[in-house]
What does this fold into?
Amino acid sequence: MPDSLQAILLGIIEGITEFLPVSSTGHLLIAEHWLGARSELFNIAIQAGAILAVVFIYWRKLWALALAFVGRRDMIDPDTGALLLVGDARAYVMKLLGAFAVTAVGGLLVKKFGWELPKETHPIAWAFIIGAVWMVAAEWLSAKQAQRIGQRTQVSWLTAILVGVAQLVAGVFPGTSRSAATIFIALITGTTSRVAATEFAFLAGIPTMFAATAYDLLKVFKSGEAVHENWSALGIAFVVSMITAFIAVKWLLRYIQSHRFTAFAIYRVVLGVALLLLLPATA
It folds into this structure.
């Protein structure tokens, strides 16, 4: 298969799966078994493309939060049209930074102890299945909580800290899905609105993933690996990932307004079982 076509396929896989609750890392590791392993820089680049798509989607919200935080003036929330008070904006930004800090500190500790992502497909397959069970259970719990306390869009400090922990867990165990872990942690800890929980999970992922990308890029360039990179394939994958992620996230944000996450859980179970049945344990 031509390298450019492989780059397009991998860009599409990353773009679709990075923010849907199905695990991009798990899908990319599986794809490598058929398409061959790519360089670390390539994987970083396509992830950066997906992150940039989310920045484009939320740029008005991010700008309003920044102006309220730094400019010390109330703003209009571009998503809801409601008044975004300075105090609320600052609290929200601090919680985003708190989630990022938890993930960053934990990530540095994980790297210090030499943890590496497993390459075998069976642990990933089990993570798909266990993650599906977690999604169904968490959504059921959040629905019960919403019946009891109503739809809440507020994000507590407990939610923010646990979102940071969930990001770390998802980074350590491929197949878990960062978006699934963070969205459902938010849902069961008091942010009962699916839209609000998803928004906080995605916004918390922006500094986390940009920091991880910058850290890995610095390491790659210091090691000299970038010299041997196929830059045309990398550029293609970056653009494809960004465009695909933009479409996927816009679709997801509309979908969750009237649908549960059950379809994603079913998909994860089917894929996990298929991997366990079709691939050897050492693959």
